[in-house]
Amino acid sequence: YNLIGKLAGYGYLPGRAFKISLGFILFGWMLFGVGYRRRIVVPTDRSRAYPKDAARAHRLSEDYPEFNAFIYSLEKFVPLLSLEVGQHWLPDANRGKQFRLRNWNLLTTGSLLRCYLWFHIISGWILTALWLGALTGLVKT
Q1: Which of 12, 64, 85, 124 lies in disulfide reach of 49, CB 3.0 to 4.6 Å?
Q2: Three-state DSSP state, 49
């Protein structure tokens, strides 16, 4: 019923939304790490990330930022935070295992990870605003 009040601890427990935020960041760290290891999280600029001689071996160019699942999760969750990882990596919705229902191809694990990324970003905006608001005394319900 009063979800925002509960998440922000009714303005008196700002740590509640902060703890939930930490849970999201840790969960994202795990998911994005698995996605990277399974080659679902890929460079946004593949031609710059993989030089022609290293494309087959999937060795990153020395000047392309390396992927770090924790930094990626943190950067995507906290609004307006830019640590130069998130803009260079993205889950590829066309990669991963295909989920089927009879004769229909429904989703890939890449598209599920991309959907989670959107949920992760939106949750970050909401929860960060709540715990910052509660911490500064702006949110009291």
Answers
A1: 64
A2: helix
For 10, 13, 72, 79, the CA distances from 75, given in Å and listed in that order, are 27, 24, 5, 8
Q: Tell me the two tokens of residue 30.
A: 């795990």
Whether 126 contacts 6, CB under 8 Å: no
CA–CA dist 53, 93 (Å, integer): 26
Neighbours of 89 (CB within 10 A): 25
Length of the chain measured in residues: 141
Type of residue at 99:
F
pLDDT digits (tens, 9 = 90+) for 78-130: 998 888 888 999 999 888 887 776 776 667 788 899 999 999 999 999 888 87
Burial of 121 (0-12, 13-18, 19+ CB in 10 A): middle
